[in-house]
């Protein structure tokens, strides 16, 4: 209990240190550049406290729960020796974490509103929901397949850079043919998928798997899954735009 409390307090100190530059920038521009007092100072201070606590508990939760379970499950699947189960787990992990990603939900909803306003889809609640869900599940499918590709790369020892180069060549080619309205959404989808939920579990999976396989270096082979998860949504969302 004492060790947990010490770690929590250490995480809180790190959160304050990490957020301090942001606070200083806001204060500088508010008082020096704009020369205006902060509105609702009590509410702002309370919000800052919530941000510090939220970041502290989030990081502490990652260290205590998500990273260990991701690495342990990857190790267990590697020792079990079943490629099918490992691939199924990798796809399910990528798909499930992406569907639940808050940033993707927000971008998909905003994209649906803009598409309805621009008369790309019917301006109704049902059409917007279908468009947003279609976008979310398309991205989730792409990330699931990306994690599968990353796992196979770790198992086979394929060089990361050639796969990344080939993927971005495809992105450039598809950009030439995709509807202009979907290109920006596709590029943003590649960024929002790698956020609070996806990154910790996927990173733990890669590192745990590379640590469990003889001849693999966790530093060299364990990372790179996030790069795949950022790349494939751009391809799939542009294809989604072409289809609809």
Walk me through what this model shows.
The chain is mostly helical. It is built from 10 helices and no strands. The protein has helices at 2-33, 41-80, 83-99, 102-117, 125-156, 160-177, 180-192, 198-212, 218-221, 225-243. It is globular and about 60 Å long. The termini are far apart.
- What is the tally of helical segments? 10
Question: Roughly how much helix do the residues carry, as a percent range?
Answer: over 70%
Provide the gyration radius in Å.
21 Å
- What order do the helices and strands follow? HHHHHHHHHH
Please report which band the strand proportion falls in: under 5%, 5-15%, 15-25%, 25-35%, 35-45% or over 45%: under 5%
Indicate the structural class. mainly alpha
Low-pLDDT stretches are none
Distance between the termini: 55 Å
Mean pLDDT: 84
Counting DSSP E segments of at least 2 residues, the number of strands comes to 0
Summarize, please.
This protein has helices at residues 2-33, 41-80, 83-99, 102-117, 125-156, 160-177, 180-192, 198-212, 218-221, 225-243.
Topology:
Blueprint: H1 2-33, H2 41-80, H3 83-99, H4 102-117, H5 125-156, H6 160-177, H7 180-192, H8 198-212, H9 218-221, H10 225-243
């Amino acid at each position: 209990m004492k060790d947990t409390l010490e770690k929590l307090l250490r995480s809180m100190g790190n959160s304050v240190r990490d957020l301090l530059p942001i606070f200083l920038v806001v204060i500088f521009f508010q008082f020096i550049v704009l020369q205006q007092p902060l509105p609702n100072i009590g509410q702002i201070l309370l919000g800052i406290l919530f941000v510090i606590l939220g970041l502290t508990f989030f990081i502490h939760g990652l260290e205590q729960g998500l990273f260990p379970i991701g690495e342990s499950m990857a190790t267990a699947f590697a020792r079990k020796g079943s490629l099918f189960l490992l691939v199924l787990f990798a796809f399910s992990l990528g798909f499930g974490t992406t569907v639940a990603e808050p940033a993707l939900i927000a971008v998909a909803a905003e994209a649906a509103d803009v598409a309805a306003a621009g008369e790309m889809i019917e301006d109704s609640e049902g059409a917007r929901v279908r468009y947003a869900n279609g976008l979310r599940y398309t991205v989730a499918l792409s990330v699931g397949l990306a994690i599968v590709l990353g796992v196979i790369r770790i198992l086979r020892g394929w060089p990361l850079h050639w796969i990344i180069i080939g993927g971005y060549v495809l992105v450039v080619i598809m950009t030439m043919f995709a509807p202009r309205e979907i290109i920006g959404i596709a590029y943003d989808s590649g960024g929002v998928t790698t956020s609070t939920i996806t990154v910790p579990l996927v990173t733990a999976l890669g590192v745990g798997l590379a640590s469990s396989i003889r001849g693999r270096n966790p530093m060299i082979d364990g990372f790179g899954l996030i790069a795949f998860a950022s790349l494939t949504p751009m391809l799939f969302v542009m294809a989604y735009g072409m289809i609809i």
